[in-house]
Batch of 2 targets.
Target 1
Amino acid sequence: MATLRDAKIGDTVTVKKLTGEGALKRRIMDMGITKGVEIYVRKVAPLGDPIEITVRGYELSLRKADAEMILLE
C-alpha cells in the first residue's frame, strides 16, 4: 500500500488510514492529518527528509518516518 513517503512532488493525495500507536498517532492527527483529508506534496528536501506538504490550507513539514505512517488511497 502506498504511503505519503512514496508520493512525488506536485501530487495531491487522499489519506486512507493512519498507522502507528498512541502519542505518535495522536500527534499526526493533531496536525490535521486525518482520514479523508487531501494533502498536496510541495517539496522534498535533497536527501529526502523532511517532506513539505500543504494540508487544510497550511504548510507542514514531516519526517520520512512520520510520512510512512500515512497510508494513501
Target 2
Amino acid sequence: MINVEIERSIEAILMVVDEPVSELTLAQVLEKTVEEVEMALARLETSYEDRGFCLRKVNGGWRFYSNPEFSSAVEKFVLDGQQSRLTQAALETLSVIAYRQPVSRARVSAIRGVNVEAVMKTLITRGLVEESGLEHETGAILYKTTSYFLERLGLNSLEDLPALAPYLPDLDGLDEILDSLTD
C-alpha cells in the first residue's frame, strides 16, 4: 500500500468513527507500522489547514473536527434555536469534578456550598461524568470525568486542563480582605 492509499484509508476510517482512534489501532487495521501511520496522519493534518474541517489528536486518538474558525456557523446549524449549553451550576460542578477527581458527590456539594444532586444527574446523562469507584472511608460513590469530556473540550488528557493558580487570589490579597472584614 503506497502512502496515498494509507492516507485515503485513514480518511475513510476516520469518517465513520464515533470517538478518536489511536495510531496503533489504525496501524493494526491497515496492517502497517505505527511509524507509517504517524507519517500519514502528519501529512493529512497539514493538508487540511485551509479547510472547513481539521484532523486533530484528542484523548489519545485522531478524529476529524470542524475548523474552530467556523464555530459560529456550526453552532447555529447544530443548535438551530435550541439551548443545549450547560448551566452555570453544571459548569461549576463539572469544574470541581475535573480538578478534584475522583471525588464524591458530598465533597462536590461541600466545595460548591449547594446541593448538586440534580446537576450531577445532568452531567451523567450527558456523558460528561461517570462513577469511578467507592471512597474507602465512607463508601460514597466517586465520580470522574469521561473520555467524552476530554473530547468535547479538545484535550488530550487531564494534564492539559489549564492551571487554576492564576485565577485564585494571592494569599496576601486574601489576608487584606479578611482584615478589612474584621475592622
